[in-house]
Structure prediction request, 125 residues.
Amino acid sequence: MTYQEKFKSPLWQRKRLEVMGRDNFKCRRCSDTTNQLNVHHLYYVSGRMPWEYPNAALITLCHTCHEMVGASSKDGDFGWERFLCVLIEYKNSEIIARMLPALKSNGNDLAEILPKIDAAVPGPK
Prediction:
């Protein structure tokens, strides 16, 4: 099965709708609701199917933002989201995902965030 064929799977379509619904069917980067929406993976794990990621590792982006993020991902777009998703993946907690908006809006830096995560998240799987 090619990578593009995987996105035609009913398993991906269901996951995609879950993520878009969670994001109120709007782009998380620019809040657009009129352009085509895509679900963007914040990171990839070799051998994992697109639908096998936790919802916290997926975000809704409009087509324009998805193109820009894809072209500039090396420049740190969604850096905090990627960082926190890796922690979720390896510490197995949705708590961090719920903390994300507060962490970002308060302008916290890494030195302030890590102790909060350690306190809130159970140890490795």
Q: What stands out?
A: Residues 3-120 form one domain.
